[in-house]
Known about the structure:
Blueprint: H1 3-34, H2 36-71, H3 76-93, E1 97-103, E2 107-108, E3 115-125, H4 127-138, E4 144-146, E5 150-153, E6 166-176, H5 207-211, E7 225-227, E8 232-235, E9 240-241, E10 245-247, E11 253-258, E12 272-273, E13 279-289, E14 294-304, E15 337-347, E16 350-359, E17 364-369, E18 373-374, E19 377-383, E20 386-391, E21 394-399, E22 408-409, H6 417-434, H7 500-508, E23 525-526
Amino acid sequence: MNRRTKIIAAVFALCVAYVLVSAVVYPAFIEPLMTIDERIAAHERERAALEEKEARVFEARLEYRDFLDRVGSFDELVVQNDLRQRLNTLIEKHNLESASTSPSRPQQDGKTGITSMAVNASAVGTLESVINFLKDVSELPGLVRIGNASIYPASASRAGRQVDRVNLRVPIEVWVLPQHRMLGERIADADLAQPEVLVRHGGRDYSAIWKAEPFTEFIPLDPLVVDAGPDVKVEQGRRVSLNGIAKGGDGQYTFEWSPTDGLSNPSILRPSLDTAEPGGRVYTLTVKDNSGNVTVDQVEVAISEKVLAPRSVEKTDDPPPPPPPPPDKRWQDRKFLQIRMALMRRAGDSRVDEMMVYNTKSRETFYYQAGTEFDGGTLVCVHPRGGVVRRDDEYFVYPIGSRLDQDLKAEEAEDYPVLRRLAQQTREIQDISFGPEEPPPSGGQVPVNAAPEPEGQEVAPGGETGLAPVQGAPAEGAKTRGGTGQSGQPANAAPAESNTLETQKAESMRPGPSTPNISDNTTSRRGSDTRKTRN
Length: 535
């Protein structure tokens, strides 16, 4: 063999060896050694998937066994009779009347082997008992499903009146499960442990259903309207309160004033205001009702510094200049203002007496307290038959039902003897208390203890009479406790000695009970507008 043949043979042997290694040795021996980690990881994944499937099968087997325990039997007739018996027990428990339960024919699904049947229940009772009955039915241990329940009034009701009795029509469906091969063994009815109840609605409150009165005719509520009251202008140290008004909504209000500085109670509608420090403030009233309506309004408060009385000026020989003609202080629209009623009530230790005035032109209502400005004068007395006003050192009577331009001088009010006598008593009290040269306090108020208490009058419980406490005039027909004054004589008896008048004057100068002195600008009213001042 020559050299050339040897080379060719060597090359051929190398090619055959390469083919054998790449086609036989590498796939059979080398490649498995190189990919063994990947194949181990794949087998681990397959093993995990199988274990997961096995766990799901085990959980499904346990869940299916729980369902079988809830059903309690594999016999359709046994399950149906048990359901009807439980329904009758619930009907008696909730006092339902005219009740009936009618079962339907069982139906079996050919693919799953599950048998379904329905029991149609009907009854009459209150809405509360019907709702509680349905709640207990949904908690029965079996595989129960409540269909579309029909609840409607048992009889026609009057408009706006709640219906007491309702009819109930409801289908109740129940399922019966078959024996399944996934259980691995056959189970008898005696091996099933059926629970008494299966709670599905723990902690839920269904009382809102019958409290909403769904079968009562819906009556829309009036819109919630809030008025924080008229703007307040008051002198430093005077007692005053904010007069808020709320109406409409459902009537269940919650009040909140902000800011709370200077208010006695920011959670009431009419809190008292502290006027010790002068300055201006803006208060916001927020009113909420139980229906979720919220309305706000604001009021401005201006507290001015207290003005001291000017010192007396020494008299000179020069005659004083003639006084200017008095301005017309009476209200310009008094021909449209009519007195509707008198309001007398007690607020804590103080009395609040008011006159209600109605504007026939603007259809507004105003309230004026005793001691405040009224038709160019001061409202000194409030009586159930009218009021007495002091204007320019004269007394005028305003009977209930009259317009303000129909006022009468006290001396000419012969048709109103009660108000006429009330004005005369008030004039006498002021003359006794302060004397001819001693002016009464500002605002026309007279201390309460300066008023003589006529015999035959009886003070109401708490010291109330038919008159405003600010002027001290007693109501007609009232009687004091004991019927005598401090001297032992009847309160309205004439003085028996010469010094009796001086004694009464000294007694009258003692400070009486404090009475709220409310500024002209705090006159409260109920309407859509606010009357702050009158010219």
